[in-house]
Amino acid sequence: MLRYSVRRLLQLVAVLAVLSLLLFAWLRSLPGGPVSALLGERATEESRHNLRAQLGLDQPIFIQYLKFLGRALSGDFGISTGVQSGDSAVAIFVQRFPATIELAVIALAIAVAIGIPLGYMAARRRDSFLDNISVVSSLIGVAVPVFFLAYLLKYVFAEQLHWLPDSGRQTGDLEATRVTGFFILDGILTREWDASLDAFLHLILPAIALATIPFAVIFRITRAAVLDVLNEDYVRTARAKGLTQQVIRSRHVLRNALLPVVTTIGLQTGGLLAGAILTEKVFAYPGLGEAVALSFQKRDYPVLQMLVLTAAMVYVLVNLAVDLSYAVIDPRVRTR
Q1: What is the pTM of this model?
Q2: What gap in Å lies between CA 146 and CA 276, rounded to an integer?
């Protein structure tokens, strides 16, 4: 297990190194750039030349990359030129990271809490009304674009019914103590229950919008996995031995069906950032997704490079954790 973990961590380093090179070269090939974003199209050639020299963009591309790599290894990704001009990319990441984590955790919790039980029940009652309506719902969840559902939820529940907030992480005039940057957790730690509840209410709509695709995928994988396991010989043998349905479901069906489901959850966790970009933009939610969109729009190289590399690192680490969890779910993996 230790050797496998070390090998995967080395693969993580290789993936990040290759991705950093490709990302660096691709960003520099895009039209425009931070100079145009900062000075505008009417800037003089002299001012553009001076700013390019100040930012180090007048040097050869491989020199720029080596300098970027050296700074990145020391934790310095540069200064933002567009998202929050003058702030370091690391400071922007630290400021916005808790917001996206809160959103992703709530969205994944919704997807898992509904997708796995519903997938299991649909498989147990194959071709029933519950099965058919669940399959149709999962297809709708995959087919409907995240941004469209986000606007629909915002219009119905925030604009029309006024049940939930329509934007932000917390009500502006609410006085709340900041401890960790995770607003719900901060409210619990400081016993400011109103602040914690307010932060949670702001999360409901964006979390539901973000959870739709993971829910649909988790549901369908769970349903398919349970159907496969129900037809296995060891399940029929367990029934023939007179084991109770509860024992058969927990020890034989669910445990063996969980392997592909866990893999799917890991992949969906890593892919939540893509959906967060659209969701956070619709709800003006100040997380990493909104920062990615702004950095693309304003050609903010330092922020964009850090956020993309961080997303890649999180994706690989999550999948490493998924692979290691196999040994807990299926003891046979430990002997391989």
Answers
A1: 0.81
A2: 9
